[in-house]
Request: fold
Amino acid sequence: MDAKSRDRITLLSPAEIDCMRKAGRAAAEMLWHVASFLKPGVTTQDLDDAAVAWTTERGHTNGPLGYPNGVGSPGSFPRSICTSVNHVVCHGIPSKKEKLKEGDIINIDVSPIVDGWFGDTSRTFFVGTPPPHAQKLVEATEECLRRGIRAVKEGGRINDIGKAIETYAHEQGFSVVEDFVGHGVGRVFHTAPQVPHYFTGAKRGPRIERGMVFTIEPMINAGRFETKTLSDHWTAITADGKLSAQFEHTIAVTDKGVEVLTLREGDTFL
Ligand code: MF3
Ligand code: CO
Ligand code: CO
Reply:
């Protein structure tokens, strides 16, 4: 989401978190299903088609389709998933004109709606074998997500997450996008709290409480952190044209600790 939501934080009951477990599991299964179509020559529209087929077969719908743009930016999102290739930071729009080629990196971001609850997860995948610098960026971005998740503690602060992510990203020589943040998620796609992936300094952010469900979704750039938005009002690219990668999980803070909801059956979070 872009950095502007000011809603109140909704704490979910154990029964509601169970609904989010189902949505999160479905999102993870869907993500890997869509990714199984990746190979040189496939278009990003082919991936969107695979996503629509998967949700339709199961009676789910897709959060992105028709999602309204921010204040002052016309046009709702025209596809069912986001596909962000190479220097695209996020919100890439699937297109039959966009053919994937050997060595590309692509973030696939899925957000199915399951019985009224939103699952939200994304990963950056390789098309064939990427050059070593792309591989290093993608691996570091996944590690940023891991470190962000490990920083989540009941009684801690939302701010701890961005601090952990930014510290690691900078150590690796990369920068952290500030124009888009993680977000509370549930029956509403994007709600409070905002979850910055960078260190916000004195503004420590809300305390982390039991019942919170939110995403962490760092976008990490090979060059500078600035982004710009294309004239389609959605596609965000790096201002310097260098590569960007992203990984996203939805997590819940429960009586058993921090639970990653967007894993496939049998997956473990490492
Ligand atoms: N899934 C994205 C997120 O992680 C949001 C996509 S909304 C869209 O928050 F409208 F851009 F598709
Ligand atoms: Co999200
Ligand atoms: Co997402």
About this structure: The longest strand covers residues 105-110. The pocket of cobalt (II) ion (ligand 3) is lined by residues 109, 111, 120, 122, 248 (CB under 6 Å). The chain is about 25% helix and 25% strand. The mean pLDDT is 96.
